[in-house]
Amino acid sequence: MKEKPVNHAAAAVAFIADKPHLDFHDARLWDMRQKRDAQMHLLPEWQDLRSRASAIKEHALANLADYLEEFERNAKSNGIHVHWAADGADHNRIVGEILEARGAKTLIKSKSMVTEECDLRPYLAARGVTVTETDLGERIQQLDDQLPSHIVVPSVHKLTSDVARIFARSYGTDPNADDPHQLAEAQRLAARPVILHADAGMTGGNFFVAETGTFVVCTNEGNADLSATVPGVHIATIGIERVVPRMADLGVFIRLLSRSALGSPITQYTSHFRGPQDGSEMHVVLVDNGRSARLGMADFWTSLKCIRCGACMNTCPVYRRSGGLSYGAVYSGPIGAIIDPTFNERKYSTLPYASTMNGSCTNVCPVKINIHEQLYKWRQVLVEHHQMPFVKREIMHMAGKLMGQPKLYRAAINGTETALSTLPRFALYNWLNPWGKNRELPAPVKETFHSWYRRNRPTAGRATPETVKTETKA
Amino acid sequence: MSARDSILATLRRNSPPPADHPLPEPAVLGEADASPERFSASLLQMGGTMLDRQQGATLDQAIALRFPKPGLMIRSLVPEATGTVRIADLPTPQAAEPVDVTIVRAAFGIAETGSIFLSEAQLHLNAIAHLTQHMVVLLDPAQITANMHTAYLRPEFHTARYGVLMSGPSATADIQGVLIRGAQGVRSLTVCFAPE
After folding, report:
1. What's residue A401's pLDDT?
2. Using CB atoms, which residue from B130, B147, B163 is nearest to A222?
3. Which of A217, A287, A363, B196 could disulfide-link to B140, CB 3.0 to 4.6 Å?
4. Considering the domain boundaries, does residue B8 fall inside one?
5. What is the pLDDT of residue A375?
């Protein structure tokens, strides 16, 4: 059965309708963006760091098979079990088997977008394993049965009152609690006994190092390190693209990651796992799930450089005013809009349109992914593959005809201005004009630029192509 | 074909030309100041504290002043302090969970971020660094390195099986953006300069 495309615009309408949530969401993410800028301005070498991060990642991706083999060799010699998962189903089966072989019935987990990609929790639940998310934001989302709405701050779309309501239901706390400290403390107290008696622990991984067989986990709450060090079994799920060649390369990425994400110089915890502690087991599951195919897409392979900082989301005016859940996908925001279609082109065909093409995402990306250019490229690909809604397709078809014929275009533009100033609202704002939803059409102008130019520049039309070019530049 | 072999084969088939993407030389960029003053300033920014130690006071006395509540379980992993419980009594995470304060020596610190490095060599039981409510960390000022680039040249990253850079206490801002120091790991992290 064909899956219907995500209706991002409709979900955004619902998000915008709730003003308190919208205002907080917009302000909170913009605050993160500004804190990121403040950190950037403290480092004169910032652009150098970005260029190096990009070059290291591109090199690692161009030699990915070799670096994965090098990592595997070194990790194994340090006593880490290395597993390979072609897709989400493979990943879940591997994790299920590790747990089953040890009779593990309880798993504590820190945040990992790859496990969300693989939809691990329902798989394990069906096999009698209780999975507890230990990251505060991720736990809130688990208890509310929602996907994370942001890759760094999963519950950023919620207010304190929402968390109080969810915790009251699950932890028996005061439903009217209005102090975030009180609610965070409730999470700490609820998580501790679960962590202490869990059969196994699971984390993601931000980076792994081919040279040493190390993987690195960057977090703030301490829950990832608890999940990794308290139970006797630690499973880490990591996307294959997260490799860096050398330990020395980490300096570049650690300096960029949290500064770009939250505007803090470093995460509170930067944890390096190179082998199991005495008497314990350590497993790494390397997950492909479409990444090796994406590496072969000439226009889109550099999206694999992503270090999941979320800076592109924080800066995106569309994301800030539509919320992560409106994307209907594990990955939201600008980065989501360029990688989600590689998972399911039809389902996520609407997401590359969730952009104003302002390019801010590209400018803040710490690994220099040309996100807005890839958004544009995806639109082309989707049109070629006929993944475009009927109305938009017809409008584009007509626009293409118009713009290809200057005389027709000018006549139409003059007509449009008349229409904008004379037609009643119902004729302008209807289903044939998706642009006019939640937006005002531009105020009609008295005169088009073209007719003004003809009136004021009697020599117009005789300009040589060279002078036109120079004028455009100036 | 196994998943491993098919992933590797697809990657080799799809990879962009390696010659177009050379690996840059390792970089040592940024401010080279490795002073204790820079370290302290960075630590404070990350929510950590410096131990206030009067001249002539022992480490135990200074820690007692920092954590004045009577009856606290204080566990020392360093010869400079005695604490109130013996290490041998806490062999497992479950036994170690009630500890209030743990005193440990860091292998090194990073001036840029106020981070301290701990591994199994200092912790013995890795979980103790995260189960304890508070942590006091001894740091030799001679073992402060300037920034993240210089830090990754340290040998510990090639020897430790578990190596954690802790930069202040655990923290979260997951509820309506309010920054809370003391999330699920240590509630406070206090550093004391102490030459080894």
Report:
1. 76
2. B130
3. B196
4. no
5. 98
Q: Are A390 and A367 in contact (CB under 8 A)?
A: no
Query: Residue A24 is nearest to which of B14, B113, B176, comparing CB atoms?
Result: B176
Q: Does the beta-carbon distance from A160 to B8 stay under 8 Å? A: no
Supply the range of the domain harboring residue B41.
Answer: 32-193
| Structural domain total, chain B | 1
Using an 8 Å CB-CB cutoff, list chain A residues near B17: 62
ipTM exceeds 0.95: yes
Using pLDDT thresholds of 50, 70 and 90, give the confidence band for residue A434.
low
CATH label of the domain that carries residue B161: 3.40.50.10420
- The partner residue sitting opposite B24, judged by closest CB among A56, A136, A270, is A56
Average the pLDDT over A424-448 and give the result.
71
What domains can you pick out in chain A, each with its CATH number? 1-42+295-388 (1.10.1060), 43-289 (3.40.50.10420), 391-473 (no CATH)
In a domain, B19, yes or no: no
H/E/C letters for each residue in B126-154? CCHHHHCCEEEEEECHHHEECCHHHHCCC
Chain A nearest-CA residue for B47: A268
With pLDDT > 90 as the criterion, what percentage of chain A qualifies? Answer: 80
Mean pLDDT of A175-204: 97
Answer whether residue B15 is part of any domain.
Answer: no
User: How near does any CA of chain A get to the CA of B57, in Å?
Assistant: 30
pLDDT band, residue B119 (cuts 50/70/90): very high
